[in-house]
Structure formats: C-alpha cells, structure tokens
Write a structure and sequence with these properties.
alpha/beta, eight-stranded mixed beta sheet, six-stranded mixed beta sheet, 22 strands
C-alpha cells in the first residue's frame, strides 16, 4: 500500500468513527445543501456560524440572526473575490476558479462529511441549477470534474483543526480567516494550514497588556472548553502567574445549560474585589452569559473584556445592551471593501446561494461599512492566497501557461501538486483587501495586529462599536482612554479590580518573619565568629569541633532559606527552596545523631572501664554525618529531575507558589523524622552522662523540642488550605528549629566560656559520676598488657575536665583512662608545684613515665 493510500485509509477510518457517533444521522444525509460555481479549478469553503445551533434550526422562525448574516457576507465575498480574479489578466489568465461552499452547522461530524464530499467530488446540487455543479455529467457512466485545490475556512478553531487535519492527508492546503487557536500553529499536526490572522497567543498578550495598562490585577475568566478557549486560557494562566489573580475560571461547552451560566455569574459576584470578566467564547455562549447577567441582577457589576470570538458587529450584542454596555472588545483588524458592498446590495433574492432567502429580513438593517464588521476583507485575502499560489505553480510548471500543460495538471492534480501549491502560498507577500501586506512567518502565521472597540449606546439605545485603541506585537497598545465608556458605572469611572488577598511576599506576616529571621541570622553569625575565636578552648573541643561547625552550617542555611520563602516565587527561588529546605533539616540532625551516638558509646566504655570504642574520632563523626546528609541530597536531586522546580498558581485562591512533588515531600519528611526520633533515643540513653562529659542534657532539650515542633508542623502544613499558610507554617518551623539548636547547643557554651569562672564551670558541664566497681588491667612499664594493680572504688570520682596536660590543655577523665595507667584517688589529687594547684592529673603525666594516649582534638568524651 502506497503512502498516500495509508493517508486515505486513515481519513476514511476517522470519517466512519465520526459518523458512528453522530446522533443526528447527518453523515448519512445524501441531500446536504451546498453552494457551487464552475471553474477550471475548484476552491472549497466551510462556514460554521451560518447555523451555529445546528442545521435543524435552518429556516426556523426567528427575528434576526446577525451572526449568520455576517457569515452570508463572507460566503458572497468568496464568490465576489473569485469573480474579480477571473476577470483579471495578470493572475491566472484564461483560467477560471470555481467554488464549492458548505455550511458545517458548527458540528465536527458534519464538517468531516462535507470535507469528504469536497475531496471525492460527490454531487449534491439541491437548490442549485445543474449547470452550476462543480461536476458536469458527460454520460450515465462517467463524470469529468475540475480538480479541488484546497479550502477556505473554517471559522471555529475546533472545527478548523478537524478539517485541516483531514485535508492534510491529501496534501491539500487550508487557509482560515478566523480560526485563531494556538493549537493550529503545530506544523506536525497541521502541515498544510495557513491563516491570514494572528494566533491567539498575540490576543492573550494584548489582553494582558490591557489589564496592566489599567492596573487590573484580578479577573474572572470564562472560556469555551475547546481548542480555541482552553489553549488561550492556559497561555493566559502561564503568562500572568506572577502578576494577575484569576478569581474564577469556567469552561463552557454545548452541554452547558442556563443554570450553569447562572452559577458562573453568581460565583463571580461572590468576589467583590473582582470586577473584570474576560469572555473568551463563541457568540452562542456569550449570549447565554449575558442572559445570566440579567437574570442574576449582575447588570453594571462587571467590566467585560471580549475576545474575537463574539461581538464582531454591533447587531450581535445590541439585544443585550444593558449587560454589554462599556464592553471592551478585541477584534481583528478589518477594512471596508466598498466594491463588495455595492455587489452585495445588488444581489437579488433569487441568487443561487441556497441560504440567501433565509436572511432577507436582516438585509433591511444593512448600513454602509457592514463589510468591515463582517470580516469580508480577511475572507477575500484568503481567496487571494490560493489564487496567487496557483498562479505561481502553473507559471513554474507551464512556462507561458501553455494550455496543454495546464490541462495535464488539471487532469492529474494530486498530492504532489498540493505540496507544491502550499510551498508557493507560504512564500507570498502581497497587498490584500485588508490594506496590509499578506505574508506568512513561522507556522504559517501573520503578525499580531488587533483593534479594540468599546460598546457604547446613547439614550435612544442606538449602539455603536467605537474604536478606542490599537495593538500590535511590536509597539503594543495605543489607547484613547478618554473615549472609553466603562461597564455599568453611572459615574463612568475606571473600575477597580484587585486581588482579594496579598501574595505571601506581601502578607503582613512576611514582615514579622523577616524581622525574626534577620535577628536569628545575626545571632548565628555572632555565634559562628565566637566559635572560631574560641576554637582552641577545651569546652569547644569537648563538643566536637567538626560536627559543631557542620551543625552551624545547617542553622545558617535555615535562616537564609526563610528569606527565600517570603520572597516572590520564581523558577530560581523555587529551585533554591526545593533543593534546600529538607537538606538544611538533615544538616541539623545528622551530625547531632552521630554526635549523641558517639557520646553514648564513649560513656558506656568509661562506665564499664573498657578501652576506647572505634570510630569515635572527629574525622569519623564528620564522615558519618556527611554520609547521612548525602542521602537526603540524593533524594532531592532525584525529585528535582522528575519534577523540575517552577512557580505555579494554586487555585482557586490564585496564590503564586512553588510546585511540589508530594512523594518528594513524604520521603524527605519520613527520612528527617527518622533522624529526629533516633536522635531523641540517643539523647534519652545519655541523659545520665555528667555534664562534663559534654552537653548531653542540652542536646536532649534541643531534640525533644524539635520533635514537638515537627509533630505540630506536619499536620498543620498538610492541612493548610492555601499556599500563604503553608509558607508561613514552614517558615516558622524552620525559624524555631534553627533557633532551638542555636540556643541549646551553642549559646549555652558561649555563656559558660565568657561568664562562668573556670572553677564553677562544672555547673554547666561537670557532674559527679557514680562509677561501677570494675577491674582494670593496666599495662606494664614496657607498655605490654600484664598483671598490674587492680583499682576498686565505690567512691564518687570527681570530674576531671579541668585537668591539664603539660602543654596546658585540659584533659578529661576519659583521657586518663585512655592513657591506660592506674588512676587512684591518691594520684588523682596530687599536685605539682609547676602546674595548677587544683588540677587533677593522670599519674604518668606527672612522672613522665609510661605511655600517654590523649584523645584526638581533646574530644574523648
């Protein structure tokens, strides 16, 4: 099967799928109405708004359908443009273009059916004379036809995406004058799509610039739940996450009822600080919203901002003038085409257009300039794109437009020629009926240009769409604010629409947190400086100099991280927060766990009179601490890769916050809580260690307090209803945790160093220990283990943290044990004339005999 056959197979499969789900059976209707005209090449056209409530409503009794009437203008504009081209000698001389126009009734299933009809040249000529059919019968068994070269349309983005995708299977171009969804910019999904209007990304940019111009920071956003509305809302949400609150957001579709729209209006009214409502919908849904405003007594309560999907002309919204007064409408730039208006006014009711008779009532309200409001100039420019492109193709393939060559192309027009035609169309640059150069940039798009109009009515309820501004993607808005009539305000004052609650970085609590955090950070810097200055003091050494500084790093990091919590979220700050806030907790408690476990092991060794346990040096403590910290670092890195940090909007409060992977949070919390629990166990086991054997009691105070903080923090954080409260809870938790660690582990020691006399320092770090009777075998003078004296004592052994070596450094009792020499109550109280009279020394330090094994960095216990 050839590549083209695969495409056709897929096309028909999709068609069958659509028809199977079509409850109206329109896919089986062999009497579909269409509007055709003969030619050497046939240009198709699809329209959605002629009967946007479904084909069953065609010819039904109604007063006015201005939207359908505007679509009729565009249909006749295509015919008029083709007739003008057929008269010209500079474009396609001696070659005529015909047309085949369908009404999709705003239904995707029917649009697919009609796309098949156009491509496969099926003959449906109801309401049309035989000689106007695109297919002319030669005999009963064979037909000749003009080649179909592409389609103009459709209007709705959702339907345009459907038919463009299908036509791409046959390599046939689609040019739209109204479908603006960003989804259609995808060249992979829609490789043969062009449009003579800007995509919605520019319209959203224009709306955001408008909101910023009038300092509106809170809006409600109502959009159609299709490719047109959803894509636009997503872009708006992403572009305004740092600046504009979305108080309410609603997607509507064909299933939305009157009660649904009443609920939407009521919900928006509940936000008293939100006056601006963006209505990014089609005309059908806009009408339902206006009706809901009237029924819910919301007249004068909203400043409406309308998209290009509704209100293109004043007649579409005049019926709802009370609700739409003061509306600011963004619409495409269009120009009046006088020659078309003259043509249309002369068209008789007997015109071959099968839908012309339906709109005879609307013809009575036509005024000069109606072609601008109907988008006629854009429609005619779409026809010119095909004409110029086909002209370029034929002149390239058939020099001099040789008649025989042209005839061969007509008879063999296929996907290859379709691709070539599309290539010529994308290279065009010409002055169109819209009075600007038609050209295509990336993804077959035009540049962004819009006009803003204001719906104004006088006392006689004569309404107009008054131009009050222009926007383009280069120079942005030019707005005549003095000419604007504001929505529903009797005094015609600029409406105020502000965010109800301040973001966390503007919250009153943020200032309080910053003051506390700054105080803690300054204290942390002072403590760090004091520790560096007193790094050789015995009390600092006894605490483990390495782990102390490692814990201080975690404390300082916590204080710095709090600043990031109360600043405006961004991609950078979110990366810093997510990579740091759990790591800094681990930097607190991993060294503390290792240190308390080391204290416990050393204490057990002393009370049992055994030799010093292994892996209790400062280097070992630092190694194990860093290993535990690296586990948390690895967890963080994995989740940063899985869910990259970014700032997001938390709805419905529309609070800007950092994204968070719930699994990451759960794993990190479990790991840190495990460290805290183990720390608490070790602190409890070492609760009886005398204070001269380091700060076990203060470690206990620190760990128990932190455990209580976490028990309160976790449920409060998880159950916090809005992002602001989550940030405040987490900030306070980090502040309290860092401050508790700073006070109990560091400020206490500095207080003792600077304010407590050495003789009284045992108040904080010294206490008697009740040693169990034990036998200690001491080494002989040769240093080898042997039978020696046995020391038995039930008396209280005084703490010896004040003991000093010959170099003036104080020793602990553990160091005396480490020296592996007999220690008796007599030798422990010996004095030396050259040393401190109140100091207690190991015997060998006095005699100079034997072996002395001081602990590393003086931190034996």
């Amino acid at each position: 099967m050839a590549k083209g056959d695969y495409a056709i197979f897929i096309f028909f499969f999709v068609l069958i799928y659509h028809c199977r789900g079509d409850s109206t059976n329109q896919c089986d209707d062999e009497s579909i109405v269409h509007y055709v005209g003969p030619g050497d090449f046939i240009l198709g056209a699809l329209f959605d708004d002629l009967h946007d409530q479904g084909c069953t409503n065609a010819n039904s009794d109604r007063q006015y359908d201005y939207e359908g009437f505007a679509t009729l203008h565009k249909q006749e504009a295509i015919v008029f443009a083709l007739e003008e081209i057929n008269k010209r000698t500079d474009i396609l001389p001696n070659i005529t273009l015909g047309y085949d126009i369908y009404d999709t009734c705003a239904q995707k299933q029917l649009a697919v059916k009609q796309a098949i009809n156009q491509v496969m040249y099926k003959e449906h000529c109801r309401y049309v004379e035989e000689n106007f059919c695109a297919i002319s019968k030669v005999d009963n068994e064979s037909k000749t036809h003009a080649p179909f070269i592409g389609v103009v349309g459709a209007e709705w983005s959702e339907i345009t995406s459907t038919i463009s995708f299908h036509f791409s299977a046959f390599h046939l171009p689609t040019v739209s004058y109204f479908a603006s969804s960003d989804e259609l910019s995808d060249p992979v999904m829609f490789p043969f799509f062009l449009r003579v209007i800007p995509p919605d990304k520019f319209q959203i940019d224009a709306m955001i610039a408008l909101l910023n111009h009038f300092n509106w920071t809170s809006v409600a956003f109502v959009y159609t739940d299709d490719s047109y509305g959803k894509t636009a809302f997503k872009r708006f949400q992403n572009k305004t996450e740092n600046s504009i609150c979305i108080a309410e957001q609603f997607g509507v579709d064909s299933r939305s009822t009157k009660s649904d729209f009443d609920f939407i209006v009521k919900s928006i009214l509940n936000h008293s600080d939100t006056r601006v409502v963006i209505l990014f919908t089609h005309q059908t849904y806009a009408r339902l919203f206006f009706e809901a405003m009237e029924s819910m007594d919301a007249i004068g309560k909203f400043q409406l901002i309308g998209s290009d999907g509704w209100g293109s002309n004043v007649h579409e919204i005049q019926k709802f003038s009370r609700a739409t007064k003061g509306t600011l409408k963004i619409r495409f730039v269009d120009k009046i085409v006088p020659q078309f208006e003259n043509y249309f006014l002369k068209v008789s009711p007997g015109n071959r257009n099968p839908w012309f008779e339906e709109f005879k009532t609307e013809r009575s309200i036509l005024k000069t300039g109606f072609s601008k409001e109907s988008g006629v100039s854009r429609t005619m420019d779409s026809v010119l794109v095909f004409a110029y492109g086909l002209d370029a193709l034929l002149k390239e393939e058939c020099p001099g437009l040789d008649a025989k060559c042209v005839q061969e192309i007509k008879e063999n027009f296929n996907g290859t020629y379709g691709r070539t035609l599309y290539g010529h169309m994308t290279s065009l640059n010409f002055m169109g009926y819209n009075k600007h150069n038609v050209s295509f940039f990336s993804a077959g798009e035009d540049i962004g240009r819009y006009e803003m109009v204001n719906f104004q009515c006088n006392d006689d309820q004569e309404c107009l769409l008054v131009p009050v501004g222009d926007w383009n993607s280069i120079s942005q808005w030019t707005i005549n604010g003095s000419a604007v009539i504001w929505g529903g305000d009797a005094n015609n004052e600029l409406p105020i629409s502000r965010c109800k609650g301040p973001p966390q970085w503007r919250h009153p609590w943020a200032s309080f947190i910053i003051v506390l955090d700054s105080t803690g950070l300054i204290c942390g810097m002072i403590v760090t400086g004091a520790y560096i200055w007193n790094r050789n003091h015995s009390l600092i050494h006894a605490s483990g100099l390495g782990v102390s500084f490692l814990i201080l790093v975690g404390v300082m990091f916590s204080y710095l991280l709090v600043f990031a919590f109360v600043t405006k979220p961004s991609a950078i700050s979110c990366y810093f927060l997510r990579s740091g806030y759990m790591v800094c907790f681990t930097t607190h408690f991993a060294p503390l766990l290792v240190h308390t476990w080391t204290i416990f092991r050393r204490y057990k060794a002393v009370t049992r009179n055994t030799r010093r346990p292994g892996f209790t040096s400062s280097a070992s403590e630092i190694f194990f601490s860093l290993s535990l910290i690296l586990v948390q670092v690895a967890i963080t890195i994995v989740f940063l890769i899985v869910t990259p940090p970014e700032s997001i909007i938390q709805e419905p409060e529309h609070q800007l916050t950092c994204n968070q992977n719930d699994t990451e949070l759960a794993v990190s919390i479990v790991y840190n809580v495990l460290l805290i629990i183990l720390c608490s166990v070790c602190a409890f086991l070492t609760r009886k260690v005398p204070k001269n054997y380091k700060e076990s009691r203060f470690i206990g105070f620190s760990v128990y307090t932190t455990l209580v903080i976490w028990v309160l923090f976790i449920p409060s954080y998880v159950n916090a209803p809005i992002a602001n409260w989550k940030v405040l809870i987490l900030s306070f938790a980090m502040l309290i945790s860092a401050s508790v660690t700073l006070i109990f582990l560091f400020l206490i020691k500095l207080y003792a160093i600077y304010l407590v006399p050495d003789a009284d320092m045992n108040i904080y770090i010294a206490r008697d220990v009740k040693a169990k009777p034990a036998e200690v075998s001491w080494p002989s003078e040769g240093g080898r283990s042997g039978a020696g004296r046995v020391l038995r004592s039930r008396s209280r052994v005084n703490a010896i943290s004040s003991a000093t070596n010959f170099d003036g450094r104080r020793w602990s009792y553990g160091e005396a044990i480490a020296a592996r020499e007999p220690v008796s109550t007599v030798s422990m109280v010996k004095t030396h004339s050259s040393l401190d009279s109140d100091a207690v020394y190991p015997p060998q330090s006095l005699t100079g005999q034997g072996h002395i094994y001081p602990s590393e960095a003086g931190n034996w216990l």
